[in-house]
Amino acid sequence: MYFETVKVMGKFPASVLTTVNAPYSKKLDAPTLAHCLTHPEAAKAWPGQMSAFFGEVAPELQKAFAGAFHISEAELVTAAKTFAQFSGESYPLAA
Q1: Of 23, 37, 66, 72, whose CB count within 10 A is highest?
Q2: What pTM, to 2 d.p., does this model score?
Q3: Burial grade of 7 (CB within 10 A; 0-12, 13-18, 19 or more)
Q4: pLDDT tens digits, residue range 38-80?
Q5: How far apart are CA 21 and CA 11, in angstroms?
Q6: Which residue from 29, 25, 39 is spatially nearest to 6, judged by alpha carbons?
Q7: Could you please report the per-residue DSSP string of 37-72?
């Protein structure tokens, strides 16, 4: 599974992580971002990056990223809603 993920991520737009990490000195890598999508407590440790992912990355790219890590669209929507409740922000996938 690791090699499958690496193969998929090799084709993945770098713009997702660039957008998520742009203003932060501590960078979130792809596996950690994927982990945060399925673990709400982990997401709370990266509030800026998670807010950028849900608020600044196009929903279709969010879905593609999640799919690369075998995270279903339903799980992604749940993550967006859970993080929206935590952050008080509004995100397209949480609507």
Answers
A1: 37
A2: 0.85
A3: exposed
A4: 999 999 999 999 999 999 999 999 999 999 999 999 999 999 9
A5: 19
A6: 29
A7: HH-HHHHHTSHHHHHHHHHHS-HHHHHHHHHHTT--
